[in-house]
Specification:
GO terms for molecular function: ligase activity. Keywords: Ligase, Membrane, Transmembrane, Transmembrane helix. Its main location: membrane. The chain is mostly helical. It has one domain. The protein is 70% helix and 2% strand.
């Protein structure tokens, strides 16, 4: 009996440490920066950015080290629970998914044309198979760990330093001042640095995306929280994160925030009264509008990467925006009055199948075009990329559609095991018909799509593993909304996970941003598993 109580007490202590380490990683990894110089031996010679030589990385090397160290610690503690404390590994479905996922990541590295890059990652990203093993290990441990609810709010508080630092960087950059010209800042980051510093996350696209996730989480927290102090803090965080995504001059975060906002409001209405949701939502939107006006006055380019998108969408078809409004009203009605899980399940199924069907159609169209042109290079065919709709969508997506099509072409070559994670720029420059050059004359170094990036790197089976995790959390979250399960953290962490999944359609994964997904997803899956 004493042995049983000892083991339970020991397990609780270990779980607390796992939570603390996870919170620390969520706090520190997105903001840590320092120069690291390494010698890169490149397999290509015609792209100066990716040729051999000494390379400096400010953003991701120390993020990678911290990720590896944190993963070793929490995985070691979990193994101690299993081996020494004899904790049973439960046969949950997601555990099987994670194992299969990990196997295909390992196989993709072993079978890659560039196994060293596929294992350790590219010199400026460090997101090879080892990093993905860390992601899966973090998710696995959190999914199988009982974390006391009193620690949940600290996962949210861990996001505050990112907001503080990146808001300062974003505003400074928006004014046109080069912060790296300040010798103190330059030396703090290792010295001798050139270029531009927008964010602690390597690129302004990532900064915008991460800010949109914090915006979504904060807005959800604000609507569901009863404590006025935390409610006000969440309001402030939502406004500041909105400010960051505007200062990043990247449309991705703005699109994610717009997409998530109706869903968040619908959930808020489900659990609180309409009046309270309206008051807090209007307060947040008014403050966001004030922030927008101020920032747009500082630099009018803010409009070009935010609200101008609405006009661009309307140019494609005048029916799109009214259609979105109708869908939102229908969603509010359904969640407030109809309360049918089957409706959401059908919607989720249709969306998932439509995305896969569209990808398969593009893949088959590419192969068909290649086959015809291989037989007759002068064949008179209308290629997909020559259509008027394609050109409009590609312009609006800042050449992303063109890059996605090229990425699908590479996936076609190795659909099962992929080409190796982080090898994309090297394979693209060799196999692409345009030698990996975008419409804007730049080297294409990533797919600009999380899902295509994984499918390219580790194959379709690995992608299905990721999709299974996302569907489990998305479906589970909305099932609990339908059942009116009164646990605000299910929806706070669930919304964060879903927001990351949404921005993944037009952004890649990178260590600094990935932490919020794998940690929030692990906690969400754990809570949903216990509720079920």
């Amino acid at each position: 009996m004493l042995d049983k109580y000892y083991k339970e007490s020991k397990a609780e202590s270990i779980n607390k440490v796992i939570a603390m380490i996870s919170i620390f990683m969520l706090f520190m990894i997105p903001i840590i920066m320092y120069k690291y110089v390494s010698v890169s031996y490149s397999p290509i010679f015609n792209a100066s950015a990716y040729s051999s030589g000494a390379k400096a990385d400010v953003f991701n090397f120390f993020k990678m080290l911290l990720l590896n160290l944190g993963t070793i610690l929490i995985l070691g503690m979990y193994i101690y629970r299993v081996v020494v404390l004899k904790e049973e590994i439960k046969s949950k479905k997601l555990n099987v998914v994670i194992i299969i996922f990990a196997i295909f990541i390992a196989m993709s590295a072993l079978l890659s044309q560039y196994p060293d890059i596929a294992l350790f990652g590219n010199y400026d990203r460090h997101e090879g198979a080892i990093t993905w093993f860390c992601y899966l290990a973090i998710f696995f441990v959190l999914y199988n760990t009982n974390i006391d609810e009193k620690y949940y709010k600290y996962f949210y508080y861990a996001l505050i330093p990112f907001i503080a630092i990146n808001l300062i960087l974003g505003i400074i950059k928006l004014t046109g001042y080069d912060i790296l010209s300040n010798s103190l800042v330059n030396n703090m980051l290792g010295g001798g640095l050139g270029g531009q510093l927008f964010t602690t996350l390597y690129h302004y696209n990532f900064g915008s995306a991460y800010a949109s996730i914090i915006f979504s989480v904060s807005f959800m927290y604000m609507l569901l929280e009863n404590d006025t102090k935390i409610k006000v803090l969440s309001l402030i965080m939502s406004v500041l994160s909105f400010a960051i995504l505007l200062t990043m001059i990247s449309a991705g975060g703005f699109v994610t925030a717009l997409f998530m906002l109706p869903i968040i409001i619908v959930i808020g209405i489900r659990f609180t009264n309409v009046k309270e949701v309206a008051i807090w939502s209007i307060a947040a939107i008014v403050l966001d509008a004030i922030v927008y006006v101020i920032l747009n006055n500082i630099n009018p380019v803010v409009y070009d990467e935010s609200f101008s998108l609405i006009a661009k969408i309307n140019d494609i078809s005048g029916l799109i925006i009214p259609g979105i409004v109708i869908v939102f009203v229908a969603l509010v009605f359904m969640m407030k009055f109809v309360n049918r899980k089957i409706v959401f399940n059908v919607i989720l199924g249709v969306v998932t199948i439509s995305i896969f069907a569209g990808s398969i159609f593009i893949s088959s169209s590419i192969e068909k075009e290649k086959k015809i042109l291989a037989q007759d290079p002068n064949a008179d065919i209308v290629r997909m990329k020559d259509s008027a709709m394609y050109q409009k969508l590609n312009t609006m997506s800042t050449d992303r559609l063109n890059i996605w099509v090229k990425s699908i072409d590479l996936i076609n070559d190795n659909p099962i095991f992929g080409n190796g994670l982080d090898t994309y720029p090297y394979v693209m420059v060799q196999k692409d018909e345009d030698s990996g050059i975008s419409t804007f004359g730049e080297y294409i170094d990533k797919p600009h799509n999380w899902y295509l990036s994984l499918a390219y790197g580790s194959g379709i089976i690995a992608l299905l593993g990721l999709v299974a995790i996302i569907i489990y959390i998305t479906k589970g979250t909305f099932d609990k909304v339908s059942d009116k399960v009164d646990n605000k953290y299910i929806y706070i962490f669930g919304i964060g996970t879903i927001a990351y999944a949404v921005q993944g359609f037009y952004n890649d994964s990178i260590i600094g941003t990935a932490m919020i997904f794998w940690i929030f997803a692990g906690i969400s899956a754990n809570m949903l598993s216990k509720e079920n």
